[in-house]
Amino acid sequence: MTRISLKKNEDRRIKGGHPWVFSNEIGRIEDASEPGAACELFDVSGNFIGTGYHNAHSLIAVRLLSRKQEDIDSVGFFEERIAAALAHRRSLYPQLETFRLIYGESDFLPGLVVDKYGDYLSLQLLSAGMDRRRGLILEALQRLLSPKGIIARNDVAVRTMEGMTEEVELLQGSIPDAVLMQENGLTFEVDLRNGQKTGGFLDQKENHLLLQGISKYKDVLDCFCYSGSWAAHAGFFGARSVLGLDISERAVALAGRNAALNGLSDRVSFEECDAFDRLRSLKLEGRSFGVVVMDPPAFVKNRKNLAEATKGYITINRRALELLEPGGYLISCSCSYHMGREPFREMLATSARQAKREVRLVRACSQSPDHPVLLNFPESEYLKCVVLQVV
Fold this sequence. Notes:
Layout: E1 2-6, H1 12-15, E2 20-22, E3 26-30, E4 37-42, E5 48-54, E6 60-66, H2 75-92, E7 98-103, E8 112-117, E9 120-125, H3 128-132, H4 134-145, E10 149-154, E11 167-173, E12 179-183, E13 186-190, E14 219-223, H5 229-236, E15 241-246, H6 249-261, E16 268-272, H7 275-284, E17 289-294, H8 306-322, E18 324-334, H9 341-355, E19 359-365, E20 384-390
Parallel strand pairs: 1-4, 9-10, 14-15, 14-17, 15-16, 17-18
Antiparallel strand pairs: 1-3, 2-6, 4-5, 5-6, 7-8, 8-9, 10-11, 12-13, 18-20, 19-20
Helix pairs in contact: 2-4, 7-8, 8-9
């Protein structure tokens, strides 16, 4: 097994619980093997730190799976880890059959994401180490869950940083064209082959409940609506009308089908358009709303474009605030890890000043608990969701 030793004074963060070792923190590599092979990590004095896998072609050179000397190349290892993750989700959602089963490092399986959509699994092998062990992972999943089908949504750019290709691949069984999932009493269609991420977004299910109460008898605007989950919840909770906006023709069609599935087509509608432009034209038309939901894709892909992305966040949130009625609510989200909680609040404060609106913070939330956050791994917390009221 490859033996890796850290440089002097490069062990504090890792011994504190962080699972990543960057390439510039490594002092010595003995018996180097192919990308993703198992390794043992030691400090400069030769003290054992943990077991993981190594990829010399990645900036994140080592990802730790265990703080013990154990075999990470066995079905039993993965079955134990996945069983623990499943037990945790069952305790959170005893009646739910759709949830994130494995959330990478937070479930001590770095580089692996598995979402359960009823009888079907959609996974992502995001690192060479996990891709190398796909057979072990599939066998463990089959033993524990007996899914009807497993699809790999490996069409993500991060794989290229690990020296792998982007692809979508059916791994086991079969996958229907559409899978139905339940959330908060509503039904949603999910496209596991062509939908975003693993097919859908499962991290906002608790936050969707924020619309309960505040959207009743209101006109609601849902920007970047994708599958229409915010819009459908608003309609379900008694909104007078809901308008969803998305630039994707496929997304608008999916959102429309989801509204129809839940008997909401009479008050929930969607437009294919650029949300930035439509927000401006809605103001020119004199439109106003009791609630605006702003849940855009990640604008901040890395720290280098944080300043430019912040300008985009300010623009859309300012325009949203300008459309709100007195007493109205803005639900604003960011799934960009590189925009932290305080910068996100500062951005919203700037947006409010530019919109000349006085606002107060009603709620501040994060991702659903099936996307658990490790305190020693801040990268595991990415989602910000706040409710602001115009006063």
